[in-house]
Specification:
Blueprint: E1 9-13, H1 16-26, E2 30-34, E3 40-45, E4 50-56, E5 66-72, H2 75-84, E6 113-117, E7 123-128
Pfam family, one: Glyoxalase
Organism: Mucilaginibacter aquariorum
Protein name: VOC family protein
């Protein structure tokens, strides 16, 4: 029944207008606001193949985990471009997770990855992949 469904994910934010600006302007994604559905946002990834629903929630609490990963071929270039757009990346320096001077985690047992947050505090990442 659900195997052919076009499932999508969603998450909350505390300020829908800031989210619209961040995802639409800063991250340069296609974002539509649906006022008939309480001002929810639809973020289109890969045209209309993958949609993400962002909904307003006054008592929003940011997730403590990565809610959205953006695969990139060149993480150094992606981080540099996003920083030029005003994105601030997280820095980690623990025995389990370290980021370098460019805020990229390399050689920590997984892919090269860099984390940042949206205006609501939700954690996002760019993650380097080969394909």
């Amino acid at each position: 029944m659900l195997k052919d469904s076009k499932a999508f994910s969603g998450f909350s934010v505390n300020d829908i207008d800031k989210a619209k600006d961040f995802y639409g302007e800063t991250l340069d994604l296609q974002v539509d606001k649906n006022d008939e559905m309480g001002g929810m946002l639809t973020v289109h990834i890969n045209g209309n193949d993958n949609n993400i629903l962002i909904y307003p929630k006054p008592n929003h609490t940011p997730a403590t985990f990565t809610i959205l990963n953006f695969p990139v071929k060149d993480i150094e270039a992606a981080v540099k471009e996003l920083k030029a757009r005003g994105v601030r990346f997280e820095r980690y320096d623990s025995e389990y997770l370290k980021t370098d001077e460019n805020n990229i985690s390399k050689g920590n047992g997984g892919p090269n990855i860099a984390w940042f947050t949206d205006p609501a505090g939700n954690i996002l990442s760019v993650i380097e992949i080969d394909s």
